[in-house]
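User: I've been trying to design a sequence by hand for this structure and keep getting stuck. Would you show me what you'd pick, starting by listing the structure so we're on the same page?

Assistant: Good idea, let's start from the same input. This is the structure you sent:
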């Protein structure tokens, strides 16, 4: 009997294959921990609520990088590290996977209008990478690499997106038995 996969497991396999193909074959980057991290990022952000998973002290969703940065300054230790990691992931996701959304995310009426997602993404990954004690010691080098190679990772994720856009819709449907997964990805586009 063939074991059934959940939508998330199938989606992870799809993103892992696309990420591995893009980074290892096209870009010549053979770094399995980095590929795993980027695959996890794509799977996590396939659900739109993960994009705005952090809240401020009053319980409001943090939907703009400026707000996330301000909130990070008020946090200590692990919560600060997690928020900086999220800022890195958030900016890398939008600049790499959905760059066409940046004019809306950074529209003149938004706080993010005058900031650089790339600059704050790099800096946030670097800050998060400085937490090297347990339980962060394994992830710290990956976050440092994301900071140092932000442009390469952004370009790689953009190519991953191009590859998944080339897949026929029937093929994409195989990777999710949860309509919410598909809707979240479609909403972002």
């Amino acid at each position: 009997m063939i074991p059934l996969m959940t939508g998330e497991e199938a989606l992870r396999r799809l993103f892992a294959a696309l990420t591995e193909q893009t980074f290892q074959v096209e870009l010549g980057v053979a770094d399995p921990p980095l590929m795993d991290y980027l695959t996890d990022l794509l799977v996590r952000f396939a659900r739109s609520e993960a994009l705005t998973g952090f809240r401020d002290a009053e319980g409001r969703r943090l939907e703009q990088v400026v707000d996330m940065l301000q909130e990070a300054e008020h946090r200590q230790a692990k919560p600060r590290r997690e928020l900086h990691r999220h800022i890195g992931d958030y900016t890398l996701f939008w600049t790499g996977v959905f760059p066409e959304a940046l004019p809306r995310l950074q529209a003149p009426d938004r706080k993010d209008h005058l900031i650089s997602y790339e600059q704050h993404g790099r800096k946030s990954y670097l800050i998060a990478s400085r937490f090297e004690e347990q339980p962060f010691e394994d992830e710290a080098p990956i976050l440092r690499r994301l900071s140092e190679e932000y442009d390469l990772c952004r370009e790689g994720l953009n190519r991953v997106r191009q590859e998944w856009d080339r897949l026929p819709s029937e093929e994409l449907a195989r990777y999710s038995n949860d309509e919410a997964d598909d809707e979240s990805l479609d909403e972002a586009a």
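That's my pick for every position. To get oriented when you compare it with your attempt: Residues 68 and 143 are 18 Å apart (CA to CA). The two ends are 37 Å apart (CA to CA).
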